[in-house]
Amino acid sequence: MPAAFPWPIHQTTLANGLRVVVAPDPSVPLAAVNLWYDVGARHEPPGKHGFAHLFEHLMFEGSAHVAKSEHFALIQACGGDAINASTNPDRTNYYQTVPSGRLELALWLEADRMGSLALTQETLDNQRDVVKNERRQRYDNVPYGRWTEVMVGLAYPEGHPYAHSTIGSMAELDSASLADFTEFHATYYAPDNAVLTVVGDVDPDNVVALAERYFGRLTARGSFPAPQPEPLPRQFGAPCAVTLAEDVPVPRAFLCHRGPAWGSADFPAAEILTTVLGRGRGSRLYRALVTDRRLAQAEGGFMAAWGLMHYPSMVMGACAPREGIAAEDVVAAYVEVCDEAAQGGVTAAELDRARAMLTADWLRELATVNSRADALGQYATRFGDAEHIRSRIELLDAVTEEDVLRVAAETFRADNRIVLTYLPEAAADAAPPEPAGTEDPADSADSADSAEEEDAA
Amino acid sequence: MTAEQLVAERPEGTAPRPYVFPEVRRLRVAGGEIVAAHLPGRTMAWAGLLLEAGVLHEPAGLGGLARVTGGLLDEGTAHYTADEFGLAVEGLGARWTWTHDWETQGIGIDVPVARLGPAVDLLAEAVRRPAFTDADVERFLADVASSLKQSWAQPGTRAQQAYREALFGAGSRYGQLLDGTPSSNARVTADDIRAFHARRMTAPGTLLVAADLDAVDLAALGEAVFAGASGPDGRAEAPPAAQDPSGVRVLLVDRPGAVQSVLRIGHTAPPRSTPDLVAIDLFAEILGGSFTSRLNHRLREVKGYTYGAGASFAHGRRIGTFTMASSVHTEVTADAVADALAEIRRMQEGGVTAEEFETTRAHALGSMPIRLQTPRGIGARLREAVVHGLPDDHVTREYAEIVAAEPAAADRAAATYLRPDALTVVVEGDAEKVRAGLDAAGFEVLAVDPQD
């Protein structure tokens, strides 16, 4: 296998705290320009869920020297592409890839919106409508659309930074005022809360000089309010099963276990574990539930380690019964596979397969300058040093069978499991009543959340 | 923070270097042809076998047969059980890639270049020696049935079915979804699958490779894939020509309780062989191709009706389509339809502005290398060359054509290939809530219920 990250990395911090990461690659005539702001849905107070994401939309609505929609227009007009932004619970990123000769334009545009925001009631109202349609399209108008929102409401205690949705509720979006967003910009959008990454056919000294020219006069903020939640125990502490009767075509169960955070010591073992158990045609869950026992429908993936960074994350999964099979039977079989791993671990051959898959994934991720820049931004933000990206393959290779067994045993426990089952309304009507103590989170609009990203375009 | 801290003057920069598609090599070996793009230094590689085995080759009434046959190739072979095959592919760090359309299927594998040889051996095993055991077929068809049930419950699927049927007629294969309906799939048997494979997937086909060719033994890849292959590879018969409707009509597909309406608006279009391809793609990009397009600007950025709106031409080998698509808030459905129709008409009548044309041209040129960074992406352009009989450097030529294009050509293409008076509009939404608005806007509205 080739080196984990064969490109040079140059890192500089400007006097105002902006971290600049440059990874030259003269093999393409491009420059990927990527900004990670260390602010996400986790910073939103109660009643203002969805605001970080709505704010991300507003960053395309103009700044001191850039008109509404002009960011997109100017990047495209210079031959750029792969332009967008996304918000998740941890962070907000903004990115574009341009012909390398147009690097300066991309830096100018990003600096202008870091340093200023041209916000009007009209643009806020417009983007509020857009985001409400985004919510309808992704959550409210599709079967099972709200499952992540419901699940994180169950997986984190009320008020925890990860316990609410990135998209926010309709009521919260309706309540957003101009002042919310000017304040949000003033609080979090500052050079010392961001990492600027440039990858491609560029000269590091030139990139730093340009960063200095366009971002250098922006003022450092010094400190940024951050949530201070109580530390979470390794397990949820009690089993949880919730059933929802909705207009869905077939029953479907979603399973969540508390798991290690991205960047923590156990995360590589969690990735290996979930790849062995739940990812791909050769995974244990596929073979046991689909091929062997014919209980579940085929899935692209039965299980994955979600990569939330700041607090314990989740091992998330899903399964659906074949026709004629009860949902609880497929869930029971799923749990059996988890229990088996918790007791017996995984084999050396399974470890090798998972490593081969994850290593090739890494090569795919690094294959484009845009995703390479985003990965560098993540490592620089999480560890304060982008060089940590070089350890990716080494850390996967260092995972032992014992590590996987330990993480499996800590993760796959009855007191660390949430099962959220959707049943078609008609079938649910005919089913016996739910056991006492089952709550229906669909009734509490603010218990929602999603860890999925929301894009501007 | 104040504006004084910012640089007011927008920097210019230098123009992009012209794009040149990677060197393509052709090689005939063991009765088949290899078309390979050389990507020096790349750690990932892609290979795919292209066969004339698209859905137009399905016997009537068996919509979905091509898809299930292709999907079953890696579900058990002469030498591997279905599970073993999955483990073998994944043990190489490989990803199975499979695509299909009206005319062809492409069975591919995306893998670190050092393992391309064993990966192509697996590809050959799947395509040439599938087992199609009764047990695997039964299991796979049950999964397909369930996944179709779910996709037919998603907003948009029934709209798309109604749209295709309106454009091409219920009797045409083009008038159905690519993968058929739940009921046409339910008719497919294991014998149909074996027969389709024997009839359509035993020809040598064309092996496409995108890789660092210095690290690859192309002839050996060809030997693995072509050995013993000798089936028919003729093209499918073209479905009969479709007639334009005499006026704009709205077909309403009921989705009770929907909070958004799915829109599909369009008509048929010329095949990819049209000499006006570049001119069509340029005006279509301005109309509905990018974030800054007229449709997205009006429906999203000005009106806030939607999360996104767009339109594009699909260029098939024999025929194409022009389609505008969006999902809009239920309350604004009729207004959104009217706005979309108005933008299509404005483009047809007035063409593009000089500024729109220049920025779109620059974007089309500059974004080429951005969109072609991966072996798999390069492989897709090789596939296009083979499917449509284009020269090896067709992407480089396309670049030159875009450089030379004139706004007047885009205007002429818009005037010719947009037909605002023959548009079919499909709305899938809550009929009770949207019907009155559509009637009031003066549309001829017809309720339809696409059958699965």
The major sheet of chain B is characterized as: 6 strands, mixed
Assigned CATH superfamily of the largest domain in chain B: Metalloenzyme, LuxS/M16 peptidase-like
**Shape verdict of chain B:** globular
Alpha-carbon distance between the two ends of chain A: 36 Å
Note the beta-strand portion of chain A.
15-25%
Structural class of chain B: alpha+beta
Pfam family, one (chain B): Peptidase_M16
Protein name (chain B): Insulinase family protein
Domain Peptidase M16 N-terminal (chain B): 35-164
Organism (chain B): Yinghuangia soli
Structure report:
The complex is a heterodimer of chains A (457) and B (452). Chain A is globular. The C terminus of chain A is likely disordered. Chain A has a seven-stranded mixed beta sheet, sandwiched between helices. Chain A has a five-stranded mixed beta sheet with strand order 7-11-8-10-9, with helices on both faces. In chain A, strand 1 and strand 2 form a beta hairpin. In chain A, 40% of the residues lie in helices and 16% in strands. Chain B has two domains: 203 residues, Metalloenzyme, LuxS/M16 peptidase-like (Cytochrome Bc1 Complex, Chain A, domain 1); 200 residues, Cytochrome Bc1 Complex, Chain A, domain 1, CATH 3.30.830.10. In chain B, the strands form two sheets. A six-stranded mixed beta sheet of chain B has the order 1-2-6-3-5-4, with helices on both faces. In chain B, strands 9-10-8-11-7-12 form a six-stranded mixed beta sheet, sandwiched between helices. In chain B, helix 1 crosses helix 7, helix 3 runs parallel beside helix 8 and helix 10 packs antiparallel against helix 11. The model of chain B has no long low-confidence stretch (mean pLDDT 96). Classes of the chains: A alpha+beta (457), B alpha+beta (452). Chains A and B meet through helix 2, strand 4, strand 5, helix 3 and helix 4 of A and helix 2, strand 5, helix 4, helix 10 and strand 9 of B.
